Amino acid sequence: MASTTEQEVSAGPTAQLSSWVSSVTLSDIPDEIQTRAKYLILDGLACALVGAHLPWSEKAAKAILEMESNDGAYVFGWDRKISPLSAALINSTFLQGFELDDWHSEAPLHSNSILLPALFAAAQQLSKADRSITVSGSDLLLATIVGYEVGPRVGNGLYGAHVLTQGWHSGAVFGPAASAAAVGKLIGLSPDQIEDAFGIACTQACGLMSAQFGSEVKRMQHGFAARNGLLAALLARGGYVGIKRVFEQDYGGFLKQFSMGNGMDPQYKPNEVAKELGKKWQTNGVRVKPYASMAGTHPTIDCIRKLQELHPEQMRNFEGMKKINIELGEAAYHHGGWKATRPLTSTGAQMSNSYAAATQIVHGSVLPAQYRHDMLENDDVWRLVDMSDCELLPSLAKSFAQIVTIEFNDGTTLSQRVEAARGVNPALSNDEIVEKFRMLTKDIIDIERGRKIEEMVLGLDHCSNVSLLEELMAGVTKNPIE
């Protein structure tokens, strides 16, 4: 199994990571990791199909399509082609379009929205440049796993979720390196070229978390990472030189700059970037969401679900509720503990713990249908949001635990704590991921098309050419919230 050597350790984390990305093969990766990755890819493609014709996705797509000719790489769900860089950007925007996509439990980023759009675009670019080149399902699978492994390691060099508390959109910061690594693997870059790709990708990293409150650009920020990593790898393939030793550089280095003022000691951890490569598989930390909201809201939703299960009659009496208190750890508090006010966009609603709690209480579900425009004006939901307070509880800082307490007008109180959300512990099973895929796609594509996508993805290691999967993804889809 490929792992870091003594020579690579002495070379520094950027060189170690570059060498591993270049040398790792599918045979180095345990069978269970390969199998799990196929199901994760299936989940990502479902999210992309769901997101392709959401109102905000259509606005972005139409603006970009007006600037592009019908040639290059497929746009998911639109039956159009555009340039590979723009395809990576807009397809990622679709995948991130409804907060249904994966996230990582150690260093939060949405891996599929970064990796799959960049890899599909790169595969089509390779085939266009040379008709004799085909990208197999095994090629796609290996490159995706490489990206799953790189993104969280880069994030751990910055203390993972702590980046969110500093106001950075973590995935958009960690993501360019993951995209560059995955594409670099797919197109066969050497270790030196991969180091250049890291240096080109990391200098483009950014993402402001203020995007969560009312903008639509939050949906696109992982797309910037997907596009920029793809660009970095293609430039490196052409001999363009990037920043060397970009992760450990002291002056203007990636980790140094994105950790400025974080109050941590040490300020950043470069050794995390290449730690336990080939031994600890970060793919195991990729979590699949059961709800259409920011991951930090999921324990809140599960608290409400548990109360609804234990006290069904009382929880249906939401008109009798007087006060809702939600206790959160630091990352979740800064990300979702802000006070939501009316009017609110769907993006803001999906980022708010108080809104997620109220939605689960009133509607009994937190899925795409609950974020239609008319649902965002529901008076019952807003009455509960207005009576809700989110509180920072320092003792929860190092866990996924949250506590919800509801006080009723008659003086009774209900309280529930969960240690980790469904999807974190336990993680969604492979069968549950297939169930989610079928549930999400049944009303937006025909059943046979969905069956073919599912069959191809779960059999990637037997697929000689991913172009058919690309074509299946390109067919027109429906808006899931009309």
What do the pLDDT scores average to? 95
Structural class: alpha+beta
Radius of gyration: 22 Å
Q: Sheet bearing the most strands, described?
A: 4 strands, mixed
Number of strands: 8
Poorly predicted tracts of residues: 4-9
The CATH C-level name of the largest domain is: Mainly Alpha
Please estimate the helix content: 40-55%
Strand proportion, as a percent range, falls in 5-15%
Assembly classification = single chain
Number of domains: 2
CATH topology of the largest domain: 2-methylcitrate dehydratase PrpD
SSE arrangement, N to C? HHHHEEHEHHHHHHHEHHEHHHHEEEHHH
Protein name: 2-methylcitrate dehydratase PrpD
InterPro entries: MmgE/PrpD_sf, MmgE/PrpD_sf_1, MmgE/PrpD_sf_2, MmgE_PrpD, MmgE_PrpD_C, MmgE_PrpD_N
Domain MmgE/PrpD C-terminal: 291-461
Family: Belongs to the PrpD family.
Labels describing this entry:
482 residues, alpha+beta, globular, two-stranded antiparallel sheet, 60s Ribosomal Protein L30, Chain: A, single chain, 2-methylcitrate dehydratase PrpD
